[in-house]
């Protein structure tokens, strides 16, 4: 025989009926406050009722079960047997019943499954009958039992999607007596557990289980009809529970994907920030390098410009001499400083510079290379400045240039350390001053 299955659900129009039947069946079993809690649970969707409220429902139902004569274990077995009788083929039930001495007539089969159910329940008080159905359930769920025994907790999630929840309860409570795994099932699926307690309780009370066990001759036909109503409502409720569970799983998956996307985005932003810092540091070094190269280039251009200026001046002097010789005009002796003071900045060869300047009737104001503080005073008291390249630092050059501009006196840049070059530039300076009243421009 193939394994039987069933589903429990409720549609939009069944909530009130479930509550109404629950109130009628449990009316003298619970207080009005507890009844309202149970009703709210039955009316709610899976995502509208939190676990804290479900725990309260479970406590109420377990309290009701504690006052029943035959207890939860017998109630769970009874619910599973009812599902067998209502969902298996009538001819199979007939053969099954014959094994325990229950005769199912052709007339019973013709009337339908509820007539068969009534026939079997009249003998259900017999322990032999209950043991036989227990053996049948054990055989039918042998694979599930083996799976739970091998890996009790981790296997429950997969088994729940394949087997009725009441069947898992029967395996743990009636077959294995595994309280630890039962508690895990209750904590993991509190809503399903609460509903199963309610469903088994409704079947137990609604079908008058204690009458079946203690006074089978008093059984009424209404019991079968009551169970039929319960089963219909139960199927629809379970279907809705399954939909809600799928919706919950989908929402959890969506939340997880969102968290993963946010994590990936934060990682990308961090990488971009690190790249930006590295690029900024690289550009800063590039700017500093370009600035240094630019300063060096400017200094080089200044030196080159001074050398070119000196070369042009020499050419001009030569042309003047040539013009003077061709015009047969006497060339005056222009090599005379006429007592002017010349500031010489740089080096430590004062004696040589002094001899040359005094030879041309001039005075010297010498600034050694290690006396930067004397530059300004020396230049301001002179009529021209000669700066010796290589024998004075950049600070000497800057201070001498600034002072020459302030005093508006010529600034001569001597590009070598040679004494002869110094004398040549001094003579050139004197000629320019006498012939044209022109002063060598400062640089």
Main sheet? 4 strands, parallel
What is the terminal-to-terminal distance? 114 Å
Order of neighbouring strands in the sheet with most strands:
2-1-3-4
The whole-number mean of residue pLDDT values reads: 82
* Class inferred from helices and paired strands: mainly alpha
- Count every beta strand, where a strand is a DSSP E run of 2 or more residues: 4
Q: Could you walk me through the main structural features you see in this protein, from its secondary elements to its overall organization?
A:
This protein has 443 residues and is mainly α. It has 2 domains: 15-249, no CATH class; 341-435, 3-Layer(aba) Sandwich (Rossmann fold). Helices cover 69% and strands 4% of the residues. It contains 19 helices and 4 strands. It has a 4-stranded parallel β-sheet with strand order 2-1-3-4, sandwiched between helices. Strand 1, helix 16 (350-359) and strand 2 form a beta-alpha-beta unit. Helix 4 (71-87) packs across helix 13 (190-206) and helix 16 (350-359) runs parallel beside helix 19 (419-435). The longest helix has 105 residues, at 222-326. Mean pLDDT is 82; it is low at 1-14, 328-332 and 436-443.
């Amino acid at each position: 025989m193939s394994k039987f299955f069933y589903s429990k659900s409720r549609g939009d129009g069944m909530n009130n009926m479930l509550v109404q039947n629950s109130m009628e069946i449990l009316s003298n079993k619970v207080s009005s406050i507890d009844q309202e809690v149970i009703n709210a649970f039955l009316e709610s969707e899976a995502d509208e009722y939190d676990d804290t409220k479900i725990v309260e429902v479970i406590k109420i139902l377990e309290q009701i079960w504690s006052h029943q004569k035959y207890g939860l274990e017998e109630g769970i077995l009874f619910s599973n047997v009812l599902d067998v009788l209502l969902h298996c083929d009538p001819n199979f039930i007939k053969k099954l019943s014959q094994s325990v001495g229950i005769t199912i007539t052709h007339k019973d089969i013709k009337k339908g499954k509820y007539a068969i159910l009534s026939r079997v329940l009249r003998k259900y008080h017999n322990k032999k009958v209950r043991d036989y159905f227990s053996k049948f359930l054990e055989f039918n769920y042998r694979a599930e039992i083996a799976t739970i025994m091998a890996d009790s907790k981790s296997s429950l999630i997969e088994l729940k999607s394949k087997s009725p929840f009441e069947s898992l309860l029967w395996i743990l409570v009636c077959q294995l007596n595994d309280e630890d795994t039962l508690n895990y099932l209750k904590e993991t699926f509190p809503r399903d557990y609460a509903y199963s307690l309610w469903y088994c309780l409704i079947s137990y009370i609604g079908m008058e289980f204690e009458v079946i066990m203690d006074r089978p001759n008093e059984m009424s036909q209404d019991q079968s009809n009551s169970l039929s109503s319960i089963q219909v409502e139960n199927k629809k409720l379970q279907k809705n529970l399954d939909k809600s569970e799928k919706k919950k799983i989908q929402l959890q998956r969506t939340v997880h994907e969102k968290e993963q996307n946010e994590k990936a985005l934060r990682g990308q932003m961090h990488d971009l920030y690190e790249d930006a810092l590295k690029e900024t540091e690289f550009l800063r070094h590039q700017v500093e390098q370009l600035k240094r190269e630019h300063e060096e280039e400017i200094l080089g251009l200044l030196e080159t410009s001074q050398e070119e200026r000196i070369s042009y001046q020499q050419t001009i002097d030569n042309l003047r001499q040539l013009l003077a010789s061709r015009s047969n005009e006497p060339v005056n002796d222009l090599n005379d400083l006429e007592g002017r003071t010349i500031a010489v900045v740089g080096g430590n060869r004062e004696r040589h510079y002094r001899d040359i300047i005094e030879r041309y009737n001039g005075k010297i104001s010498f600034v050694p290379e290690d006396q930067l503080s004397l530059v300004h005073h020396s230049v301001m008291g002179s009529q021209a400045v000669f700066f010796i390249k290589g024998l004075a630092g950049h600070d000497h050059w800057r201070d001498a240039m600034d002072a020459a501009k302030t005093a508006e006196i010529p600034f001569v840049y001597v590009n070598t350390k040679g004494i002869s070059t110094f004398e040549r530039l001094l003579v050139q300076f004197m000629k320019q001053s006498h012939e044209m009243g022109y002063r060598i421009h400062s640089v």
